[in-house]
Fold each of these.
Amino acid sequence: MEELIASVVRGLGIGSTYALIAVGFVIVYRATDVVNFAHPALMILGAYYTSWFTFTVGLPFVLAVPAAMVSVAVLAALCERIAMRPMVGEPPFAAAMVTVGVFFVLFVLAFRLIGTTVITMGDPWGLERVTVLGVRLFQVDLAKTVIALVAIGAVAAFLKRSRIGLAMRATALDQEVAMAQGVKVGRVFGLSWAIAGATAGLAGMLIGTAAGGVEPVTALVALKALPVIILGGLDSVEGTVPAGIAIGIAESLTRTYQPAYAPWLGANVDVVVPYLIMILVLMVRPYGIFGTRQVQRI
Amino acid sequence: MLAVENLEVVYEGVILVLKGVSLKVGEGQIVALLGANGAGKTTVLRAITGLLDVHRGEITQGTVTLDGAPIHHLDASATVAAGIGQVMEGRRVFAEFTVEENLRVGGHTVDRGRVAAGLERVYGLFPVLAERRGQVAGYLSGGEQQMLAIGRALMASPRYLLLDEPSLGLAPRMLGQIRELLVEINAQGTSVLLVEQNANMALSIAEHGYVLETGKVVMDGPAEALRGDKDVREFYLGLREEGAVDFRQVKHYRRRKRWLS
């Protein structure tokens, strides 16, 4: 029983982190219709900046994290301004290819900055455990869950309630009409990249926290956000939470129980599980479980 | 006064759509701009509101001025701030937003207090929108969507409201309602430029009218005069002198198909 609870909580932790990564994809997709393949690199740079601000600059962890988020947000907004703005009005597929280019530029940058070492975040929880209701849990799982969910909640509330959030959603639906209402569409694009960058930075810190640490190839973890987006719907910020948690828990349970119950599957099956779920969802509900079906009058 | 002078617009660098169009909308007026498909009516509106570059169009000559200040080089959000509102062709409401969210986007450029006042004004003008404020806009009827599009444009309290074919695809009864609302909006102090194919409706409320054909103004005058004009009656109002034609005698190639100007 204790094993089950512990793996569910671990699933919550990684699942919420996946959800936070997915939110970044969703925000850029909703504003610009482009799947941002540069996102994984932004995430790694977030981890790098957190580490850099903690160890090199010497900021306390609670200040290093927002500082890293701001740095990545600025970097993301710069990428948008330089590489993506000229692509406005071009087909989304072409723009998505440009993001692949941006990914490699940033990825090389990350390699330069990080090198071949594994960096750590200097987080306060490390491998500490805490006992909740008689079950010993890793603090890091609880921290990941709380931080990621609070961040997602803040982004969702911003999009839902604020005037700029509304303008962002309007731009996503119909750019020309949004312009005719006085929305500065270029600014909306920049802002959506900046917000996505900030969430990517935070997620990078969460990925690198505790035992793991981060090296440049950890960027591949961000691809786990793709099953989350497919499950939650590419245009739904709220949908990322249940989808992320479902995928995180599925992955975590597989890791715990598969070696005992299905050893013939071999090692590291848990890594494949998110993608299996993605394929199943695509077959049943292509717009995702929480994605918008198109509103249509008949 | 909103004045367009000698406007020339080219799309994609080669397609000359407007060939020197001039028109004026005076303070407090309703002005009708009539014309068939492809005459360039929508392009005139895009040139005024700074939406040409989205369509790869460009003003190559002429000016658009608002009270004497040139506005044709401003981008869309600056023209909204300058006091020009636009209802686009085909309604174009945000289908997945609620009615109220649609209106709030319309009030993007104005401050918080004026958004509340604007909502109140719009709900006063269109009680049906107040009833449906929480509903998804995509499920409204065509007429209600048109009202929503007009209400959205009014949220920025524009001094000049440009409407692109508000009668498009509406039932006759709905059309009558929209017509009365435009008169009401005008009476509240907003000048209106009404772009229409439905000349009957437009000329019945306008003070002045312009007829646009293939990028040129071929006729302009007081609405009264246009309504009485033989060519306008024939081409736009579908009226011919009663009994004047024996349909057996009609030779189609003889029928005038364009303006002789």
Amino acid sequence: MDLISLKTKSNIPWVEKYRPKSIKEMALPTAKISGHRVNLSDELIDFIKNFFNEIKRINAENKKIRAYNRTAIEKDQKEEIKLAPEKAAILLEGPPGVGKTSIVFALANDLNMQVMETNASDTRTRETLEKKLKETTKSRDIMDFLAQSKEKLILIDEVDGIYGTKDRGAVPTIIDLIQNTQFPIILCANEYKTNLQPLYKKVRRAEIHPLSNEEIRRIINKILKKEKITNLKEKDLNLIINKNNGDLRGIINDLQGISQGSTEKDNTGLILSLKRDSTEEIFSLIRDLFQKVNTLKEARDLTNKSDVDYNFLYKWVNENLPTFIKINEQIANAYENLSLADEIFGQIRRNQYWALLPYFYDLFAGGVVLSMKERPTAKGFRRILFPRYISTGSYSSAEKSFVEKVKKKHEISQIEVIQDLIPFLKLLCGSSRKELKNVSDWLELDAKEKKLLK
Amino acid sequence: MTIELEIPIWRIKYLPKNLDEICGRKNVINRMKDMIKKKNFPHLLFVGVEGIGKTTIAQLFSKEFLGQFFDMNFKIVYANVPLTDDERKQAKAESYVSTSKIGSIAGKKITTPAFVQVKVKPFVQLKVMGEAQFKILVVKNFEALGSNQQGFRRLMEIYGSNCRMILITTKISGIIDPIVSRCQLFLMSQVNYDSFNKLIYIIADNESLEIKDNAIEILYKITDGKISRAIDLLQLCSISSKIIDLNKLYENSQRFQNNLPRSLLLMAFRGDFPKARELSRKIMSSYKYNSHELFNLLLQESSSLPLSRYARIHLINLIADADFRALNGLDNDIQVSTLLSKICLFSEYL
């Protein structure tokens, strides 16, 4: 199927339809290599050209070595030379949807190369990877005879998706691959993973940053023009762009969903409904949970349906529990269930006892709200509170600098300062201005730090 | 030229400058002076209640032992201070052995506790600087390490010749036997009254305070012989006038106590859950207590509340249950709130 017939089909995703065919028509994301800003397309073209030059040289030398080895006695044999791994592979790191995969395909198209791709949807054990890639990377001899055959580019997409026993042995295989390849390798990843560290050490790493909103806007306008969409308001467009945080793929997907799905003039509600984890959603979920739920089944349905992360949700329940439950007996019963839920969640997180998750759900949602004998009246408006995070390990900036200043004068630990010294100084300075002045002069405190003593 | 300001905090101002200035404890000091003379000592373990000067003694001893090489060869680490995020990341990154290393551990993960990896190992592995005998590492609140103490066992043997450790703890029961057997034990009790009396007179002289023997006796009793506490109290009393009598001591020692945990319990017994929760959060965030520390304070407070025998034991039962649950749980706030809600409910039956 050629490109033109593809384009006329309306049911293919826009993301594929508008995937740039050439690097020239692409909005290049900003890229940084070891902290320096670089032009990504130049960098990649240089990388590929350099690679082929080097590999040609190395192959020629290895040929000589092999010829020599054939005649030499065993102890005089020379080892074949290899290409440095950072010249063989480059890693593109960046958030989803900024164009990592697109740029590789566009580049391959420009340079008339063929892309060999493997991504997270393939199982990547040692065997499958070797089968798929190693043979092609090692032997180019047959290809050399076919004059019109394309050079290859290896794309290992979603490297951070290599995970667990399913992909056992993948990382060493990829490292092996990089050391023996006959074709340039490009790796893509979203986030830093510790189990990939041996890999990261070998390759050149380029950070890719999201496109700016203006650039995104230009691309979107082009698409809107081509698709002849006029019913989207300026306000809605901005909403879509803002909610995706530079994820161009996400924006195009949302755009297609909205423009094809609805013909209504006001799309705001629809766009908001696409937004995950929105506070609005949590607010209404908490309200429904405390005010409407009457049976365990309803509570289950509510938590199952929602997209909100349960990690959060039970903290929201904790924060808002006293807003809705007022009778001490019911509060105590609700907390009995909530604290057991927290205990179970701790076990799940620490020991991976995921089989306990159903109890956790039932206890923190159903267990809490069903402790109420009767529903609170839905009439009275109750403000939903954000959960407050009380972490005992975190210090405010004033506290930190205060501790530093005390430490300069006297060896003491952070906790001693907070739990012992500051309460004493508060008493001392609270009853005498002179002492406050003396202490703050001695420690050279600024206004913010002085507040700690009041 | 900058003028050296007088130190306004007395407990720092009157810290001893060398071993001879340490108040009382002649036995301990003599043992230490012997060690300094012989230029050698084993790993040490200091045990004693908080605030009686274990750390000060450890510091002064190290200073005199190492002499001019003190700064380069001495480090003090606090086992109860949680690691920062950066330190955690560093520990995680360092726990992977490069695949290019030779040996069976190549490419594997080392399971050294993060605290040991980040704070202890880099120091003990480094060579001795200057002409000192060895380096000295002081670990405060050693019992807070819990099961991570195991990481010290081999460390103390392998790097023992390079670095001696002084472990400081308030609870010897919290320290595992293998560690105790590797150390020489120093038990520190409270200072005897005579040397306490002498020191207070010196301070009173210096600050031109008027204090009588009977007041010093009371001061000794109120503060359990803890010198830094006593000095704090003296300074508080000295603000209003230079004459220190019994009334003043009592009055100020009342203010001195942290009465927030008590008011938290009282508020819960009044049955006002939302306010009690608010207060518990305030206490935890301003003092950086974790839930276990807060529960412990409540436990101490529970013995002084006017409760019947039955009510007191029920309260302790509730606190113990909450602390036990917090061990498994993730969210401190939920477990503290659970305790408060149960006390609120219990108060209705009293």
